[in-house]
TrEMBL record:
GO cellular component: ribonucleoprotein complex; ribosome
Name under which the protein is recorded: Large ribosomal subunit protein uL4
GO biological process: translation
Subunit structure: Part of the 50S ribosomal subunit.
Gene for this chain: rplD
Function field: One of the primary rRNA binding proteins, this protein initially binds near the 5'-end of the 23S rRNA. It is important during the early stages of 50S assembly. It makes multiple contacts with different domains of the 23S rRNA in the assembled 50S subunit and ribosome.
Entry keyword set: Ribonucleoprotein, Ribosomal protein, RNA-binding, rRNA-binding
Domain of life: Bacteria
Molecular functions (GO terms): rRNA binding; structural constituent of ribosome
Length: 205
């Protein structure tokens, strides 16, 4: 399938052939959900922690004698049954990550790209280049009507372009190896450079 290529100033720059096996799939929500859940779980800090019975600051003295009180048998006030005692089976630091086959991850990226293509939210530009001036790039982005936008370049992002883009709200730039399902789906517009298209097709073959 062919898609027109534009320049950052809005001018035309020919067209590019996109592979049907990457950009022409019927998007499957179940695969996208699996990959996004895998990504978000892997990124979760897992630093939640409560104090157990051995960690709360309390005396370990037996609170009253074992027999003769008419009450239940108790040892220390740090027991979970008491207010301000330790928490029983509370959360502890752990990893929330789980495994997902590489083939499913690659398929998820293909379906994310295809979803943007099907929705008409995919734009191809010839090159992501800039003088390094944020104001000039911001005007180009505004004129093109991009709001929440992700730009994916080739193996490396142009340093001057990254410098100009980093202070523009709603604009993010990634190299091709950083392309991922979550970042693609949460933006309104996906912009690929010609080098980005080639790198993604090489990565997903």
């Amino acid at each position: 399938m062919k898609l027109d290529v534009i320049k950052l100033d809005g001018g035309k720059a020919g067209s590019v052939d996109l592979g049907e096996d990457i950009f022409g799939l019927e998007p499957r929500a179940d695969i996208l959900q699996r990959v996004v859940r895998w990504q978000r779980n892997k990124a979760q800090a897992g630093t939640h922690k409560v104090k157990t019975r051995s960690e709360v600051s309390y005396s370990t003295k037996k609170i009253y004698r074992q027999k003769g009180t008419g009450g239940a048998r108790h040892g220390a006030r740090s027991a979970p049954i008491f207010r301000k005692g330790g928490i029983y089976k509370g959360p502890t630091p752990r990893s929330h990550a789980h495994d997902l086959p590489k083939k499913v991850r690659a398929l998820g990226l293909k379906h994310a790209l295809s979803a943007k293509m099907a929705a008409g939210e995919l734009v191809i530009i010839d090159i992501a280049d800039s003088t390094g001036k944020t104001a000039a790039l911001a005007k180009q982005v505004r004129d093109l009507g991009w709001k929440r936008t992700l730009i994916i370049d080739g193996a490396e992002v142009n340093a001057e372009f990254a410098k100009a883009a980093r202070n523009i709200e709603g604009l993010d730039v990634l190299p091709s190896m950083g392309a991922n399902v979550y970042d693609i789906l949460k933006r309104d517009t996906l912009v690929l450079t010609k080098a980005g298209v080639e790198a993604l097709e090489a990565r997903l073959k």
